[in-house]
Write a structure and sequence with these properties.
mainly beta; Porin; 13-stranded antiparallel beta sheet; 38% strand; globular
Length: 268
């Protein structure tokens, strides 16, 4: 995906009935990618005087790419420094209305105050890492971990990689681009710990899907510069997975964190 395709993804519109419509780039895919909805929610919600601080999204059902995808947005609170939004993404009409996602979003205006970070990651040179084609990254990516997500050996459920999106220097694109990517790696990271399968078995041997996804932004960042993404699969039990992620600048500042619950089970 290039910058123009990503901009198209964020080009929200209204239909003849005044409903906000979310574009879907690939109508032939099996389901609507959750990262697309995360990015579109940020694009739809961020007011000019504030930025998105956090969003918490539940995906009760998979979106169908060949059907219109609508967004309902409610401004529940607008304070001087903090605001709150609620959102519902849905398809179909009447009794068959299909809820694809529900969201709670906090927007804020940062205050000048204290600053603290528990620990910075070890700084490194992205050019020393192995170039890798992560299709979901709308730009360049380089693998820091010894292996990626397609190895079927039982390995630690961890992944680290660099990413940057040249051409995404516009500040309004930074949060949507990172949100888009954040939805993707955690299921594959968990599967690294399971012998005999990998993320390439998703929707083939395995039924997988995101149940909830939360994302926190700690400070502004430039996604056109290198960001280090680290993910960890924390728990897999009863067909449900949980994992976390952290995003750092090349200098080691933590700019975002995310967490995800998922479904991971054998195909019936």
């Amino acid at each position: 995906m290039n910058v123009e395709q990503f901009r198209t993804l964020l080009d929200l519109s209204e239909d003849a009935n005044g409903r906000m419509v979310l574009p879907v780039l690939n109508a032939s895919s099996e389901r609507v990618f959750g990262g697309q909805i995360l990015a579109q929610l940020i694009a739809a919600i961020a007011p000019p005087d504030k930025s998105v601080k956090s969003l918490h999204v539940a995906f009760p059902r998979a979106g169908r790419p060949r059907k219109p995808l609508f967004l309902e947005l409610e401004h529940t609170h607008e304070g001087r420094s903090v605001g709150h939004r609620r959102a519902v993404v849905w398809q179909d009409e009447g009794p068959g209305r299909r809820i694809v996602a529900t969201a709670s979003i906090l927007v804020d205006q940062p205050d000048e105050s204290y600053e603290y970070q528990h620990a910075a990651v070890v700084s490194g040179d992205p050019m020393d890492a192995k170039p890798i084609d992560f299709a979901v990254v709308p730009g360049e990516s380089r693998l820091i971990s010894y292996v990626g997500l397609d190895d079927e050996r039982a390995l630690p459920a961890e992944l680290a990689f660099w990413m940057r999106c040249p051409g995404f220097a516009d500040a309004p694109l930074a949060q949507p681009a990172l949100a888009y990517v954040s939805d993707w790696p955690l299921i594959g990271t968990l599967l690294k710990a399971v012998p005999g399968v990998s993320q390439s078995d998703a929707h083939v041997l395995l039924e997988t899907g995101v149940v909830t996804h939360s994302l926190w932004f700690h400070q502004p960042f430039d996604v056109s510069q290198w960001l280090r993404v680290e993910t960890r699969g924390t728990r897999l039990a009863g067909g449900r997975g949980f994992g976390t992620g952290a995003v750092y600048t090349q200098e080691g500042s933590l700019v975002a964190s995310f967490a995800q619950e998922s479904v991971i089970r054998r195909q019936q």
